[in-house]
Every structure is written in structure tokens, then in C-alpha cells.
Amino acid sequence: xxxxxxxxxxxxxxxxxxxxxxxxxxxxxxxPDGREAxxxxxxxxxxxPRAARAAVEAEFQSWQEHAVEGHFREPxxxxxxxxxxxxxxxxxxxxRPVEVVVMNNLTVNLHLLLIxxxxxxxxxxxxxxxxxxxxxxxxxLESQVKLHGxxxxxxxxxxxxxxxxxxxxxxxxxxxxQALGEELALVILGGVNYYTGQAFDLAAITRAGHAVGATxxxxxxxxxxxxxxxxxxxxxxxxxxxxxxxxNSGPGGTSGVFVHERFAxxxxxxxxxxxxxxxxxxxxxxxxxxRPMPGAAGWQLxxxxxxxxxxxxxxxxxxxxxGGMAALRRKSEQLTGYLEFVLQQAGLPAEVLEIITPADPxxxxxxxxxxxxxxxxxxxxxxxxxxxxxxxxxxxxxRLAPVPLYNSFEDVWRIGQxxxxxxxxxxxxxxxx
Length: 433
Ligand SMILES: *Cc1c(COP(=O)(O)O)cnc(C)c1O
Hints:
The chain is α/β, with parallel strands linked by helices. The chain has helices at about 5-15, 50-65, 85-95, 105-115, 135-145, 150-155, 170-180, 200-210, 230-235, 305-320, 325-345, 375-385, 410-430, and strands spanning about 25, 40, 50, 100-105, 125-130, 155-160, 185-190, 215-220, 240, 255-260, 355, 370, 390, 390-395, 395-400. About 35% of the residues lie in helices and about 15% in strands.
């Protein structure tokens, strides 16, 4: 579609947007001038759904009125609370219900899955991951490798872009997997790289990993709620994601886990066990001998965290109400495409501002990462003063993530205006560069 850099055009796109009403279902923060801010940090912490407070309030009420009986009382029924998230989570990531469970937090889940799916043996012990992966993932892998008695430097192989490029080419990832061959135990990548915004071809990477006999897992922190995923069909072995970024489920919120159906009936897989993963039909017989439930549910440790899950349930309902990931993704491609367009129109030369996120919509989600070669921090602060809430990553990247549930095309137009105003200031005072 051809875009125009005018407020009328942006408002026209908003008027035609079938998801426009969802913005009112969230609390938007205010800018310094009292107007609604342009919130572009949904990749870091999604906004609060208006329904979240009542959802938590209902559980407070249950606790107040019924105390321990709340575990069994409708409508709360805390005993089975996590199960009420299963169907929506499965739809979200393209999975069968037996393949998903919601529990714990992201890095905890990554560790639990690595215990089962990183099983180095003999010559096959290496791990392939992104260079500059999110630090928590780096630390998790480093510690898991040490747990098995290996040296991280020798064991963890990092993918880096070709010289002069910012993102990875699928063919290079595949070639690296092939070259590692039977030394490769595990491929673990982010679904979308948190820094560059690059979305990886999860199906192709999974195929390549399986072809050499490796296990393939993904950290979907920046992909869940952002991309239309088909984890089951892509044959991914395992995955996990947080719920507080694109899934709007509150700071530190709970996390989702995917384990492919082919492992559903594998009680022999090594794992760390807890009572909530034990066969639910006999859980309360409190007997010795762990017997995991089939599927992802068999990786649970503890009884459900009701409060974060209450928020997550309300937030997931919004995704379904909007028509699921296909509908969100349709708007998202347009919204991010429009952001790319207004940034290109803002008049900053490539020596100052470079968009390092791939231009191909299939290789990105909501986020665009702006590499600002000069005065990046000043640009970030200039935008903040104008009510544009972006995210700053050292040493010189501004991340902007307009999200389809609550961002508007007018928001995106305002970002373009902010960057254009900065560009005009730079042009007026070139000596300061
Ligand atoms: C956000 C994010 C995390 C955060 O982990 P928590 O355990 O939720 O604190 C980890 N990994 C990636 C890739 C992330 O984007």
C-alpha cells in the first residue's frame, strides 16, 4: 500500500482499522503535556488492560470470602485455574492444548526445559545461539553448560551477522547448523531478536537442526503476541515466552511453555519435578514416586500463581476477541510499515539514522530498531519530551514497537513528526554534531 505522511491520512487509516476500538480497552500513560503518550514500549512492558484490575479483584474477593475453599469454589476454582489458560495459549502459538502450559517466569521455564532438552552426550554437546542474545538467555545457557561439566567458550557457538550487516541470514544459520553436524546438541534462538527486531525463520531453522539430529528450542519473549506462530506444524521441540511484553499481562507476569506433542508421553525424559506436574488424578494421595502428567503440564512444579494468571487470562481474552494473531498481525504489518515510511520521510541522512530491523515484513514483527550514529541519546530524550515513549538500548539503539492492540496510525505519524523536528534542529545547528 502507498502511504502519505499527513495527519489526515493517518486518521483515515485509523478510521478503517477494524481493531481501533481495542485502544480504549487499555490504560494509556500520559505525556508531559497531559495528552496521551505515544507508547512504543509494548515490546518491553505491554499496557494495562482495563479488565485486569477487576480480574484480580475477583480473586481477592474469593480469597476474602472463601479462603482455602477458593481452591474448589466456582468461579475461581484455583485448583484448576492454570487449565483455563491452556486453550487460549495453544491458539496463541499454534499448538495443541496438550503442548502448552502457563507457569512460573520465563528464565525459570527456560532452565526447566533445558534440563530436559539439553542432553549433551559424547561428541554431541554444542549449543548454537545468537551472538548478543538477551543476557538472561546467555546466563541460562552458560550455567546449564557448566552444570554438565563443559566449558561455555568451547561449547556455546554464537551466530554473528556478516561483516557490514546487522542481522542474520537464514542460509548462514542453516550452513552453521550443517557444519556443526553431529557435534550439535541444541539450537536455541529468540523467535525475534530483542535488539535488532529480526524475526527468524523458525520452521527452516527447526528443519535444519533436526536434519543433523539436534534439538531445537526458541525463546519467544519477543515473538509471542507479536507474530502468528505455528509451533506444532513447524515441529519445534520446545519454547517458552513471557507474558508481560506483547501479551500485556503485567510486570513480572507469568510465562508460557510449549513442549511438542511427541514428548507428551515421555515420562522417561529427565526433568525437575514438583507436585503440580504429577498425575492430577492421584496428586492428593501424596505418595512417593513422581508420575508426570502427559504433555507440557508434566513440567509444572508449583500450584498456580492466581494473581498474575488472572491478569493473563483477561489479557489473552483480548487477543481472542480481536480475532487472534492473524488479525493482529494484519494490522501490525501495516502499522510497522507506516512507521518505516514516516521515519524515511523524516529527513535524517543514513549516516545519522539507520533502521537495522529487516525491511522484509516476514523478517520482523512490530519493532523497528533505529541505530543512531550521532546523538542517539539526545534524540531519545527529545522524543520523550514530546510524549513519545521509546526504549533506549546501549550503546546507540532506539527501539520503537507500535503494537496493533492499542497503537494507532496517528501515534505513528506523531513519531515521524518528532524525528522530523529533531532532523530540522540538527540541520539548523550542524556545528553541534
Ligand atoms: C524479556 C526477556 C527475558 C526476561 O526474562 P524474565 O525471566 O522474564 O525476567 C528473557 N529472555 C528474553 C529473550 C527476553 O526478551
